[in-house]
Amino acid sequence: MSAKLSEEDLNDYIAPGPICINPTNKDKGPGQSSVRELEVGTEPSEPEKVSISLQDCLACAGCITSSEEVLLSKQSHTVFLKAWKDMPSDKQLIISVAPQCRLSLAQYFSLPLAEMDRVLLSIFSNVLHCQYAVGTELGRAITIQHTNEQLLRLKNQGAKSPKLCSVCPGFVLYAEKTRPELVPLLLSIKSPQQVTSSLLKQTLPEQDFYHMALMPCFDKKLEASRPDAQEEGVDCVLTPREFLAILEELQVEVRDHLSADGHTLVNKLSPPGWDPRLHWASNEGSSSGGYAYQYARFIKELNPGSDVHVLQGRNGDVREYRVIASDNEQHVLASASELYGFRNIQNMVRRLRGSTRGVRVVRKRGAAQDDHTSISQSAKQADPYSSEFIEVMACPGGCINGGGLLSGESSTKRRSTAQALDERYAKELEMVDPLLLTLGSAAQRSYEYEFHAIEHKKSTNPVAMSGAW
C-alpha cells in the first residue's frame, strides 16, 4: 500500500492508517539503530515477531483509527467467537446494541426495523445463548442528563469557551494526540457505550459476565480499551460488518428467525428492572445521540415561554439550536450546535484558536466588505463556534455514517445510505424523553473520564494526522 498522500486521499472518511509508526526495539549490532518503522500489511525482512497492543495505539501519534490488523489482537469477531465457545458455564454473555447498528442491519437485509429487532433477539437468544440483550438508551439518557447538568454548572460559572462533546472516540483521540489545546474543552462525561456497561454491572453486581457491545464505529473498540474505561468491563466491541462475519461463520440464516416472538424475547432478555420500552428506544435530536438538541430543550424547560430556533450551517453537517427568550427575540439564552466531519473540525480548530491562517474568505459580489455580521444576518445561519456546547463527531453525517456500518465503500454510496438511515431513524425508532426519565440512584453516580494530551515524539509518518483532512 502506498504511503503517499494524493488529492484523492483528501476525503472525509477516516480509514485505517497504512503505516504504523510505533517503534519496536530489537538488539542490533554495534552502530546500528534499535528503532525502525513497521509497515502494516508487509512481511518483515527479518524473522522477528512484533506485537502491537491497543495501548500502543492509544499512545501513538499516527492514525486516528488504528489498523484493523492491530485491533484483531483483542477486538474482533474471531476473538469474540473464541471467547464465546470457551466460555465457562458460570459465565454469561450479555449484548448491548446501539440503535444505528439495528437500523444498518435492517437496511442491509431490506427489513423493517421491528422485524430486524425480532431477528436479532432470536439470534442472540437461540444461537449465541446470551442471558441479556439491551439497547443503549438508558446509558444515553444518563449521558444526556449529566451533560446538561455539567453545561449548566459551567454556564452559571461564566464559562466562555464552548465545551466539546466527548462521546466520539475518533475525535477524542484526535484531540488528545494532535490538538492538546482542545483537551480542556472536552466534557468529561462518558459515552452511552460505557455508561450502559456500568449500569449492567450495577444491576448484576454478583454475576460474572462477558459483555459484547455492537457499535457503529471501529473507534469504539479503542474507547473500551482506555485505562479509565476498564472498570465498566466492555469485553469486546464489534460492528455490524463483523456481526455479519459471525453469522456467516456460524451459518446463521436471517430468514430462519423472522417468525420469532419479539415481545416475549425482549422481555426475557431484559435485565431485572430494565424496561425494554426504554432501553430499546431512542430519543429526539440527531441520529448521533441528540446531545446538542437535548441541551437546548433543557434550557428551554428552565425558561418557560422561550423557544428553540434551528439554524443550518454552510453545509449539511453543521446545525445550531438557539434558545430565544419569550420577550426579546434578540436575547439568546443559550445555544448548542452539531458539527460533523473532519473538514468542519479543522475549521473549528482554526476558529477556536482565533486564527484564520490558510482560510480564504469568499464573499458574494456586492456584499459588504467588513467582517462584522449583523444580528439579522447571524440569525439566518448557524454560528457553532459561539455556542456553549458543540456536539462533535468525526464522521461526516455523524454516527449514522459510522465506519463499521453496512454502508458500502464508496463515498457516494456511504452518503446515500447514511441519508436513508437518518430518515428511518426518526420514523422507525420508538422515542422517549431523556429529560423526563427518572433513573434513580444509578443516575446519581459519577460517569466521567479524565482526558489528557498524549505526549509523543514528532511523527515521520507522511499520512499521520497533520491537519490535512
Automatic annotation (TrEMBL):
Segments forming domain Iron hydrogenase large subunit C-terminal: 91-403
Protein known as: Cytosolic Fe-S cluster assembly factor NAR1
Matches recorded under InterPro entries: Cytosolic_Fe-S_CAF, Fe_hydrogenase, Fe_hydrogenase_lsu_C
Species this chain originates from: Zygosaccharomyces bailii (strain CLIB 213 / ATCC 58445 / CBS 680 / BCRC 21525 / NBRC 1098 / NCYC 1416 / NRRL Y-2227)
Gene3D superfamilies registered for this protein in UniProt: 3.30.70.20, 3.40.50.1780, Fe-only Hydrogenase (Larger Subunit), Chain L, domain 3
Keyword list, A-Z: 4Fe-4S, Iron, Iron-sulfur, Metal-binding
GO molecular function terms listed in the Swiss-Prot or TrEMBL record: 4 iron, 4 sulfur cluster binding
Similarity annotation: Belongs to the NARF family.
Disordered: annotated span: 16-47
PANTHER family in UniProt: NITRATE, FORMATE, IRON DEHYDROGENASE (PTHR11615)
Highest taxon in the source lineage: Eukaryota
SUPFAM superfamilies: Fe-only hydrogenase (SSF53920)
